[in-house]
Amino acid sequence: MTNRYFIIGCIAALSLLSACSKTFLEQSNPNAIPTAVYYQTEGDIALAVNGVYQSLRTGDGIGENSGLYTDERSDDAGRNDNQSNAGEPFQFNDFSLLPSNTYLKTHWLALFQTITRCNQVLSNIDNITFSSADTKTQYAAETKFIRALIYFHLVRTWGDVPLVTKQLTTLEEVTANTFREKKEKVYEQIVADLKDALNSPLPNQQTGANKGRVSKAAANALLGQVYLTMATTLDAGSRTQNLNNAKTYLDAAWAMRSFSALKDIPYTDVFDVNKKSTCPELIFQIVNKQGDINYSSSIAANNQAKGEKVNSLKPSSGVGGNVKLDLVKEYEEGDPRKDFSVKFANDATVKDWYITKFRDTSAVAGTNGYGGNDWILIRYADVALMLAEVNMYLGDNATAITYLDMVRERAGMPLYNVVKADPNYSSKFPTLKLAILHERRVELAFEHHRWYDLLRFFTIDELVTYIHAKNQADYGKAKISNFGLKDLYYPIPFDEYKLDPVKMYQNPYYQ
């Protein structure tokens, strides 16, 4: 197949259920089923929707092992190994990322592969007769939510990106969609998809065997976050309207919770593999199966350090996920989230901080490290802190502090109006805005929020100043001096850019 067939991350590529048409190859694959033939029954759509969910699992996209593209881009995590795999992983937290980086291209491809699967479902669902109209609407709603979720990752990571909302089956269609759409248009589609999800028969919360499927609480929370991001990163003329919209949907998500107070849910319960299906704080998660070679979680084992036994029974020979000393120092004295989330490995050959937030030392996970951790994408502490943020931007500091204190109280930390009188705290976090950013950092550490939080809380000029003010000794081998205006977005992968340098134009400073 030609490179053009794989353009924009396999947008045009059909899934394993599909076949290339004669337009591409002038031959048919006897082992493949054409899409038009495959989708015949309600069950076929159900399987395809499951395939959409399945695509979220990969660490090349937004799964549990995708920290390379998020946390390692931030000041929370990284690596001091600048030699392995041709040094390409190191480029992410060294702020020296090249358009030719193969990990960058793999990330792009994985995200667009999920978009492709979503578009296949949505392009074929109307051709199928369903026993219940609600079932059809619900499948479409789940798929649109996931398409919105992935496009939200894409637009925050690359800015303008190709926007494709239908199945592409011919070379002509692929060529016509080979261009970057303005980010404002991408956000319009994200909002439309999420509103469609909210106007569906989806339940407010998913329970039991349906944990891991989309709910209205998840759609409200994500739409609130989308509007909050739009308010802080797009045209300032729409800022107030977007902030009010963010508040509306975040309030709606908060109102759908099934618990009374956040403090009633122990912080450790959120990450307890034995409570993942019953913890009421979890809104949307990628479900893993403990002990299963194919569908288990590997995050506990991957973050284990040599000589340590906190995370997994699987032995380790390295450091696991490297934690920046900059983050370690930001935890307040006595914050139990520090001892739960990070630990110093003191092995003779490994002396470094590593991540301990995700654990499974059960016999079922065993020495192979087949853990049962679900990967949490949305939870209520995140919603509370976004409500603190949006109310602060709207000038309602009292309400903002109320939500901030919900998270601090659950952690057993002094409330904001008390702790801000502490000179040590106030010198680090002199404003309510910085206090909220701090709380997000320590509460949500390693959950892949930090980089996007930084992009939302600061303009790129402010972020350059913020990063450059950090102590290089607390950051490791990666050079904070490399951070600059270019780092607002990732470069477009070279193989995508070269397909049409005009319509697939490169991001600034990567020319």
Give descriptors for this structure:
two-stranded antiparallel sheet; 511 residues; two-stranded antiparallel ribbon; disordered N terminus
Chain-wise SSE layout:
Layout: H1 7-10, H2 22-25, H3 35-38, H4 42-55, E1 77-78, H5 90-93, H6 102-124, H7 133-158, H8 171-176, H9 183-198, H10 216-233, H11 239-255, E2 282-286, H12 299-302, E3 322-323, H13 325-330, H14 336-341, E4 342-347, E5 350-355, E6 375-379, H15 380-393, H16 397-410, H17 416-419, H18 423-428, H19 432-443, H20 450-457, H21 460-468, H22 494-497
Antiparallel strand pairs: 1-3, 2-6, 4-5
Helix pairs in contact: 4-6, 4-7, 6-7, 7-9, 9-10, 10-11, 11-15, 15-16, 15-19, 16-19, 19-20
- Please state the structural category: mainly alpha
Characterize the overall form: globular
In whole angstroms, the N-to-C terminal distance is 28 Å
The DSSP helix count reads 22
Characterize the main sheet: 2 strands, antiparallel
The strand count comes to 6
Describe what you observe in this structure.
The protein is mainly α and 511 residues long. Helices cover 44% and strands 5% of the residues. It has helices spanning 7-10, 22-25, 35-38, 42-55, 90-93, 102-124, 133-158, 171-176, 183-198, 216-233, 239-255, 299-302, 325-330, 336-341, 380-393, 397-410, 416-419, 423-428, 432-443, 450-457, 460-468, 494-497; strands spanning 77-78, 282-286, 322-323, 342-347, 350-355, 375-379. It has a two-stranded antiparallel sheet with strand order 1-3. The chain has a two-stranded antiparallel sheet with strand order 2-6. Helix 4 packs parallel to helix 7 and helix 10 packs antiparallel against helix 11 (239-255).
